[in-house]
Amino acid sequence: MRTALIVTDMLNRYEYEDAERLRASVRETIEPMRLLLDRARELDLLTVYVNDNHGDWSAARAELVARALAGVDPSLVEPIVPAEELPFVVKARHSVFYETQLDYLLRRRDVTRLVIAGQVTEQCILYSALDAYVRHYEVVIPRDAVAHIHQDLAEAALAMMARNMGAEVVEAGATLR
What we know:
Elements: E1 2-8, H1 19-42, E2 46-52, H2 61-69, E3 88-91, H3 102-108, E4 111-119, H4 121-134, E5 138-142, E6 146-147, H5 151-165, E7 168-170
Parallel strand pairs: 1-2, 1-4, 2-3, 4-5, 4-6, 5-7
Helix pairs in contact: 4-5
């Protein structure tokens, strides 16, 4: 079984309604996420960043990184800026799979197990997990490395992923093998 780490929507300016709630959650998840990235590098596991284009159809890695670092809280971005050698996929909707080349990339690398980290648990993480499940990937969600806006909805989303999708919901330290 080949595992890949998917880092979802972490390049963010945090300049919108509910942003402070999300930033508070990201502050709690940034260290487990950084540790996941370090562990993936140690194990030589495929790590793919997938990020929303925030409505800018010309944006790519460099623009999204620069904009996020210029946002209201660069301390939430600096620890997880994607290394140049890592694959970077731009998305426009909630799921990391919706009209992106991610599935093709994962299949070419014989990946069967996805560890999905990032934000927002009750939105993009949930929808990405569902899309991974219907594509027959084994799904792992590190509960301490996914950030939320609404804790109650995030808890419900984690329960749905576990129950309805057979996702393994565990602490970040137990995800990469």
